[in-house]
Every structure is written in C-alpha cells, then in structure tokens.
Specification:
heterodimer, A: alpha+beta, Arc Repressor Mutant, subunit A, three-stranded antiparallel β-sheet, 16 strands, B: alpha/beta, Amidase signature (AS) enzymes, 38% helix
Chain lengths: 514, 527
C-alpha cells in the first residue's frame, strides 16, 4: 500500500503546471454583425457594442482556456535533471526523463510550493490531499507512453481572478471575474522537431522550451438555450494568436450553424499564416487517455497551521499558511495601494502593472524625487512610456535610469527649468545616456530665465511689436493676453514661466507707455 | 562449503577457512555444471571474480564490510544492473544494458556481495512457472534430486530428460540458483506470489517484505502498487541478514517509508504460548491437494501443541481476490508496458513507414502472447466507458481485501498460517497443458491477496511429498511486522527440519563441494 508521505526536495524539476480555466468567458455577438475584437482576449468587452439587427438572433460564445505555464524551478518536476533555457537538445535528461525501465518519479518540493502559491494568488481552494494520474497516449516525444498529471484531485480548485478593462470612448473601467476551475501539476512532454524533407522526427527530452501554451475550448449558442458543441483549439503560444484563434473560431462556428451545418466535437489547430483554425489529424485529436492513478507517487499531503502534526520536520512537510505569508503583494492590492497612496487614476495603476518593470521604475523615481506623485505618474506614463513604445523597448532596456528622471523632475519641481525645457532635457537624456540632467540644462542653457529685468525687456519689446494684440486686450478681450504670453515664451525658448510672464505683461499693459 | 547457509559461509570467510575467490570459483563451476537448469540468463563471471578479488583484499586487511562480504548472490533479470544486460526474459529488452543499478542491487554490492549473474523468469515476470520467457523454461533442481528420483525409481538424469519439473515462478531462475547451491541468496520479485511460489516448489525460504519497506527503484515493474523485491535463501536467518541490508527508505522510491529501520536479527523463540495463529477458513479450497492440506493441519497442530493459540479466522472477500487482482494487474501492465516503443532502448523492428507502424510491429515482435494479452485486457479495463465498472470496482474490492487482513490482525491474531501453493511442483509437460492465465489464477490463489494488502509473507518449506518433492506453507504478518513474522517462521523452520536437497549423484564431481550435507529427519511425516 502506498504510504502517504511527501517526498520533496531531492531533485528538482523542469516541469509544467496547467491552469485550467473553463467556461469562464462569455461573449455575446450579434448575428452577421460580429466585429473582430481588440488584439487581446483578456481585454475584449463582454458584449459587443453592436445591437443585433432586427429579427436576427443573438449568439453567445463560451470560451474556456487550459493554460500550460512552466514553473520556474532549478530542476524538473519528477527528476533531478536541471532546467535551463536553450540548453543543447537532450543534454539535461535523467534516466527517469528518458523513461528507462525501473525508474520512478520523485516530486520536486519547489514545484509544489509554486503551485500552492499560484493557487493562493488565484483565490483557489488548496486541496490538502491531491493525487497524481497517468494520462496515456503514444507519441514519440512522450517516452513513457503516459504523462503524469493531476486529473481527478488536483492541488488547487475553484479560484477566481478579477480584472478590469476599459470600454467606450470614455474608457469606462469595468471589473470582470474569470473563474479558475483547477490548477494541476503536470509533467511536460518532450519536444518533437519534424524534418519534413527527410521525413524524420527528432526528439528533445530536455523539455525546457515554450513557457506558455494555451488550449482554447470554444462553443456558441443562443442565449437561453443549451450550450453548443465545443471545439478545442490546441497549442496556442502567444496571447495574440490566442485572441485571433478564438475570434476566428467563434465566427466560424456561427457561420457554420447559420448555414445549416453542425459543429463537431473535435480538436483543431491554429494556422498562424492563414489566421484560421483547421481540424487536426485524427491521431492527434480526440482519444481515450485511459487515465489511471499514478501508483509510484503517494497522495500529496499539504498542511496548514491547524492540521500540521506536532513536531513535524519542516523539510518533510509543506505548510500552506507559511507559503501564504511569503506571498508577494498581489497586483490588485498593488493597484489599490497606488491609487490610495499617490492619488493616481485606476487606469494609470493598470498601466504601471501591465508593463514589466514599469512599477519598479516608477517607485524608484518616486523614492528619489521631491516632485509630486501626480507629476511623476504623468512623466512615467506619458513621456517615458511614450519613448519606450516608440522605439519598441522594454523598461529594462531604457537608456534613462530612474535616478536621471528623478533628478530631472527635481529641477522641474524647484522651478529651475520650465516644463517645456524639461521635455528637451529628457530628449537629451535619451540620446546621450549617462549625462546628468543638470549638465544638459547648463550646456543647452535651458535654465529658467531668472533675470526679471531681461524678461521685462523682452515683454516690452513684444508689446511694442504687436500693437494690434495690445489693442485687443485693452479693448476688452482679456484672453488675447495668452497670445502675448505665447510670443514671449517663444522668444525665451520656453525658459520662462508663463505665470511670471503674465504677471509682467499685465503690469506693463496697465501702466502708460513710457 | 556450498551447501552451507549464508550465515555459516560468512563465518567461514571471516575465519579464513575459505576465500571469496575460492567460493566464487566453486559457484561459477557449479553454475556451469547446472547450466541445463537454465537458471541464469547471464552469468557475470568476470565481474564476480573482480568483486571476489576486492573482497579478498578486504578480508586480508581485516576490513570486511559485513556478513555479505564475499558472498555469491544472484539477481532476477528484471532488476537493473549497471553494465550487465537486463532482459526481463523478453525480446523487447534483449541487448538492453542499463546505465544504473537498482537500489537493492547497489545495496548488495555496497556490502561486498558477489553478483554471479542474472536469473531466468517468465517474460516481464508474468507467469507462475518460469516457463514463459524467451530464454526457455527453468528446470527445478528437485527433478534431479536423490529424494525424487528414488521415489520414481529413476536415474539422476535420464537420457531423454523429459519429465523434469517446473520451478514455479516467476522468480524460478533465482529459486533454482539457490536450490542448486550456485549462490547463497538471490533476489526475486513478488507481485502476486512470484517469490513465494517458486520457493515452495524448490524447498526454499521465499520472503515478500511489506510494501514500502524495500526500494523498487530499478526493479522493472509489473504492477507498481504490488511489486516488492523478494528474497530467496536456504534458511530464515539468511533472509533476515539480506533483509537487514535491503530495507529502508530510498529517496528514489517515494513509496518507501521514512524513518529508521530496525535490525532484522531474529531472536530464537523458545516459547510460542503467547502467539495467536490464524487459520483462514477461505483458504481451504477443494483444489487443495490432500498432502498440502494434511501438512497445513499438522503445522497448526504443532503450534497448538506447543501452547500457541490457534484459531480459525475469516477473510470473507478472498473469493473475489483473483478476479480483482487480474483487473488491477493487467491495467497497470498496460500502462507500464507503454514505454516499450522501440524508440529509446530495446528492440526496434525494421518497419519505418510510419511511427505508428513502427510501434505496432516493434511491440508485436518484442512481447510474447502473455504480455500482449495482458496489455490488451488492461487497456480494455482502463477505457473511459469501462473504468468505473472494472478498475474502480477492483480498487474497492482491493480495499475490502486489505481490510479483511486488518480486521483479523486487530482481533488478536499475530500471524496467519496458510498453504503457499495448491500442490507440489508439476512436470513441465503437464504444466503447459493449461494456458498461462489459467495457471496463474490457480497458482497465485494463496499468495496474491497479500500483495494487494501490502503485507509481509514468507514461504517456509515444511516437508517432502510422497513423491519426494518440497511442500511449503506460508506465514502472513501485519504490515511492517516483518521481523516478528520471520521470528515465528524461524521457530517453525527449526521444528520441521526440512531436508536438504540431495544432488550429489547429479553433480558427481561436486560431491566434495557438498560434503557436509546431511539429510535431516523429517518431523512432519506423511501419513
């Protein structure tokens, strides 16, 4: 009989875990009127803006995702073989990975902890007892003839993830919830490299490549009627293709049904070049996986502070509560904190978190500058992110470090430079990394015009040069003064403060000409 | 010297009465001489002699590694051995040389044991006769014993040699190897009785440890949830010595139990009056031979007469056991055999028109009918539409069977006493009249329930039948009470004084080797 002890930490794993998320997205589309959504599935609106044409029946689509994400660990899920990206093929293969007869799986503790942490982050119920199963199919890159997974009793179930999207011209933010059915630990298969020319297949058992793979289950039905027959689009490896495949599949099913056809419960693949889904060959498609319990792995037992046996060796048990304590701040909490702490708009908090490294950049700037948080937000999200986007760079690739931006914002804050000048300094920072902002200011003479006399002279000259505008102001159109302010600013190359210019101009206009 | 027990020869080695190399050479000579038994698939002569040399050096320096240092052992050919072909008696693994040692093999080698070779079996251990391997059947050494031949008024080895007996199985090669004195202990594997059954037919101790006590890492699986490495020796103390080396947690086998393992040295019981022996009434089946039945009852009487409490007990789900075993066994077989696809190792056919065609032909050529039949049944039971009706039900029945044992042991029973087999070994020609499945179902009848419950069990040879062949009885203990079980078995062994096999005539010039054998009296005489 299998003895229920947890075997951990002896070897690590490169492994995969699947986040299964079924029946979670509903989309309603109007007959004949479906319009391709935005590029990302997760950001698409629940309902399309189009109203159904009179007499046409509405369609609803149901989408479920099975997400395979690689957990970052030093070694594989069930063997001590290392995990390393882009290692030479078959260089990180243990006897177990090659399925040599007599080898047995040994569960990697790090992977279990990561799965528990993921489950907690996604508000799942963590099963204190979970089981492993074998899923059978013959394929060249599956040397054991089965894959070890958690089909019956997975490590975490019934979670949810709230997310917000902005809709309409006003970019109104609405919050949505996606339900997570289960999280399971699953052994990755190998990788087949097909050489069609020589009709050969090469197999790499390192199993450390694609880090994210999604299968999408899609069906359509009329609201109020039973769900339609679903198809499964397999092996989507980018968010963009996932969205395209789902959009295509919904369209295809609707037109198929409206033309009197029927939807087959089948497995399809997405043709990246043609942008459409096509049925997979039979043998890769639907089959009986003949699931059975994995007899070589005892039930995986987890504990919490109430169930932890007294005197248990911390190396031998996994305590859910301890993992909960090590959970980092979750994105929703971070966003709420940003809004509360810095008074930023919710959509700004989303942008800060959605761009890898941007939040850290922002926080580093905040730490080093005396500028108002709102100012920092504006600069990071508009100027800084704008430059990045324009050049298609990641935050980590930015030529401008947070400290430089912080210094620049300090110059702005102390009124050493004007906003317009700050933009010029930033452009210079981007072009010549490493140069301190203050140096740029002095080299380019971008410092704010502090000499009041000189400024007064400039104002006077401007008034003299534009008698018509002066007449307008005096004739009862106070807004005409803005034109004069603009002219003075231009003359100072943006180095003078508009408020000061206005003050001087107003004074000069109200006193009689010399 | 070869006729001695492991413990005796270990003492002789320590005293310098014999050297490891002498011992190794004598065993190798005997292996050569008894080649016709077909006990070994591979004889690892060179490696064994090297190991003997190393052992000899240790003894000379007074740095012996322990009781097993310099002791010749054999290992069933379904345990992985570094650099030594491991075939499972199948075409599928012919030529497969593993790059690693099974944990149990490594432990034996670490103690200085000499690995004489890999022993024969039924293909992938699927069988109860050791007749269904690709290297041919194993012959029972008792076929050539003085005791058996005298009863049949036959010469030690006839010209035509056609009426030899099977060893039982599937660890028949290991049993024959120990029985014919070619080694002092051998590893078998036991999934449904594969160690105890041939031990019964070959007059040996055949021990199946508790599931989880001994590592399965490197044992090429038949049924992972029931497989255990088994031990075959000529006396109970020898089994305890080997068990002491093998037992314990293995990080490479997650089903082995944590925690320290106690010594398995066995006290000599003088008083059995505090023992309670259970006699399961369901094991009294009509097919049981009268001789076995009579010996079983005498054994019970022996305990009774020595003051032990002997009581009839019930294991009510016994009758469902074989069917349940069949479903679970074939299902796991179907799964475990899936890895043999000709891609990574082992046999690969010449067909290359498609991957599927290559798989199909490789597997047809690589597996015998028995293996293919079990794969087919198992896949049938695992189909989505059948899973609930077969696999799930069988698992439930398995739990009931395990609970039967728990209930009996909770009622105060210390060990159960049962037959090991229905009858003594039968001639090969008779055995093959029935197919493998029918035979296995009959032969595993008393043994496989123990595997489903994960309990320790041991065959103890009791007496010779009227034909002069060994008959054994089985003791079953509660899980992880292996030492207690062996202690009772040792007491019983001392009472029955089972006779030593007499092979002198067969091995004429080896008679000096077996010089110190003597025929012990049989205390449990047949009526």
């Amino acid at each position: 009989m299998a003895v229920p002890t947890l075997r951990c930490g002896f070897s690590g794993s490169r492994w995969t875990f699947a986040l299964v998320d079924r029946g979670c997205r509903h989309r309603t589309v109007a007959t004949f009127n479906w319009i391709r959504g935005q590029s990302s599935v997760a950001q698409q609106p629940l309902h399309t803006a189009q109203k159904p044409r009179k007499g046409a029946q509405e369609w609803a689509a149901v989408v479920g995702l099975e997400i395979h994400a690689q957990i970052s660990s030093n070694s594989k899920l069930f063997s001590g073989a290392e995990v390393r990206f882009a290692a030479p093929p078959n260089s990180l293969v243990s006897f177990f990975d090659a399925s040599l007869p007599g080898t047995l799986p040994v569960l990697n503790r790090r992977c279990v902890e990561a799965a528990v942490m993921t489950g907690l982050a996604l508000n799942c119920h963590i099963n204190q007892k979970s089981l492993f199963d074998r899923k059978h199919y013959f394929y060249a890159d599956l040397p054991a003839g089965y894959q070890i997974t958690q089909q019956r009793l997975p490590i975490a179930v019934n979670g949810n993830l709230a997310y917000s999207i902005c809709v309409g011209k006003q970019q109104r933010e609405i919050t949505k919830t996606v339900r997570v059915k289960q999280i399971q630990l699953e052994q990755d298969s190998g990788k087949s490299l097909h050489d069609d020319l020589r009709s050969q297949t090469l197999v790499d058992l390192n199993r450390a490549e694609g880090q994210l793979r999604v299968d999408a289950n899609v069906s359509v039905h009329h609201p109020g009627e039973p769900l339609g027959v679903r198809t499964e689009v397999k092996n989507l490896n980018s968010i963009r293709f996932l969205a395209k495949a789902i959009d295509y599949e919904i369209q295809r099913q609707i037109s198929e049904l409206e033309n009197g056809g029927e939807i087959l419960n089948e497995t399809r693949s997405f043709d990246y070049k043609l942008g459409c889904t096509v049925p997979m060959r039979d043998k890769e498609g639907k089959q009986d996986y003949r699931f059975m319990p994995e007899p070589n792995l005892p039930p995986l037992l987890l504990y919490d502070s109430t169930s932890l046996p007294a005197g248990a060796d911390p190396q031998q048990v996994i305590d859910i509560d301890r993992i909960r304590e090590t959970l980092p701040e979750l994105p929703s909490e971070t966003r709420a904190r940003l809004v509360q702490q810095y008074g930023m708009l919710p959509e700004h908090s989303f942008t800060l978190l959605n761009e890898v490294g941007l939040l850290e950049f922002f926080q580093n700037v905040i730490k080093e500058t005396r500028a108002e948080p709102k100012k920092v937000v504006s600069w990071v999200l508009n100027t800084f992110l704008g430059y990045l986007k324009q050049q298609n760079l990641a935050v980590s690739e930015s030529p401008v470090p947070p400290s430089a931006l912080a210094e620049l914002l300090d110059l702005l804050h102390t009124r050493a430079i004007s906003s317009a000048a700050a933009k010029q300094v930033f452009e210079e920072l981007w072009k010549s990394p490493g140069k301190p902002p203050a140096q740029i200011v002095s080299e380019k003479q971008l410092g704010l015009l502090q000499d009041r006399e000189a400024l007064e002279e400039l104002c006077r000259a401007t008034l003299d040069g534009h008698p018509q505008v002066v007449r307008d102001v005096k004739g009862g159109n106070p807004r005409a003064i803005n034109k004069l302010i603009g002219l003075v600013r231009k003359a100072t190359q943006g180095r003078a403060e508009p408020a000061l210019i206005k003050q001087i101009l107003e004074k000069q206009l109200s006193s009689p000409a010399p | 010297m070869l006729g001695r027990t492991l413990r005796e020869v270990s003492v002789a080695l320590k005293r310098g009465q014999v050297t490891p190399t002498e011992l190794c050479q004598k065993c190798l000579a005997l292996i050569q001489k008894t080649k016709f038994l077909n006990a070994y698939i591979t004889v690892s002569e060179e490696a064994a002699l090297k190991q003997a040399e190393a052992s000899e050096k240790r003894y000379k320096k007074g740095q012996s590694l322990g009781d097993l240092d310099g002791i010749p052992v054999a290992v069933k050919d379904n345990f992985s051995t570094t650099g030594i072909e491991t075939t499972c008696a199948s075409n599928m693994l012919k030529g497969y040389v593993p790059p690693y040692n099974a944990t149990v093999v490594q432990k034996l080698l670490d103690q200085g044991a000499l690995l004489m070779g890999k022993t024969n079996l039924d293909e992938f251990a699927m069988g109860s006769g050791s007749t269904d391997g690709v290297f041919g059947p194993v012959k029972n050494p008792w076929s050539y014993s003085k005791q058996y031949r005298e009863k049949r008024k036959q010469k030690p080895r006839d010209e035509n040699d056609s009426d030899w007996l099977i060893t039982g199985g599937s660890s028949g090669g290991s049993a024959a190897a120990v029985s014919a004195f070619t080694c002092f202990a051998a590893l078998g594997s036991d999934t449904g009785g594969s160690t105890r059954n041939p031990a019964a037919h070959c007059g040996l101790i055949g021990f199946k440890p508790s599931y989880g006590l001994v590592s399965r890492h490197g044992l090429i699986p038949l049924v992972n949830s029931m497989d255990v490495p088994g031990i075959l020796t000529r006396c109970v103390d020898d089994t305890a010595i080997v068990l002491g080396v093998l037992a314990g947690h293995d990080p490479k086998d997650s089903t082995t139990v944590q925690g320290p393992v106690n010594s398995f040295l066995l006290p000599s019981l003088t008083d059995v009056s505090k023992l309670c022996i259970g006699i399961p009434k369901e094991y009294l089946v009509p097919e049981l031979s009268p001789e076995v039945r009579s010996l079983w009852s005498k054994a019970a009487d022996l305990f009774d007469s020595e003051g032990a409490k002997v009581k009839e007990v019930s294991l009510p789900h016994t009758c469902y056991s074989i069917v349940c075993y069949h479903v679970l066994c074939t299902s796991e077989v179907a799964s475990n055999m899936a890895r043999f696809d000709g891609l990574e190792y082992g046999h690969r056919c010449d067909i290359d028109i498609s991957t599927e065609a290559m798989y199909a032909t490789t597997r047809r050529e690589g597996f015998n009918d028995v293996v293919r039949g079990r794969i087919l049944s198992g896949n049938f039971f695992l189909l989505k539409e059948n899973y609930e009706d077969y696999f799930i039900k069988a698992q439930k029945v398995r739990r009931l069977i395990a609970n039967d044992f728990v209930n009996v042991f909770n009622s105060g029973v210390d060990v159960l006493l049962t037959p090991t087999t229905l009858r003594e070994a039968v001639p090969y020609l008779e055995f093959i009249q029935e197919d493998n499945r029918t035979r296995s179902a009959q032969d595993d009848i008393f043994t496989q329930a123990v595997n489903m419950a994960g309990l320790p069990a041991v065959n103890i040879p009791v007496a010779l039948s009227r034909q002069g062949l060994p008959i054994g009885l089985q003791f079953i203990g509660p899980a992880f009470c292996d030492q207690q079980l062996l202690t009772v078995a040792k007491w019983f062994e001392q009472q029955v004084q089972f006779p030593v096999i007499q092979l002198e005539e067969l091995m004429d010039d080896c008679s000096s080797v077996l010089a110190n054998e003597k025929l012990a009296s049989v205390s449990l005489k047949q009526q």
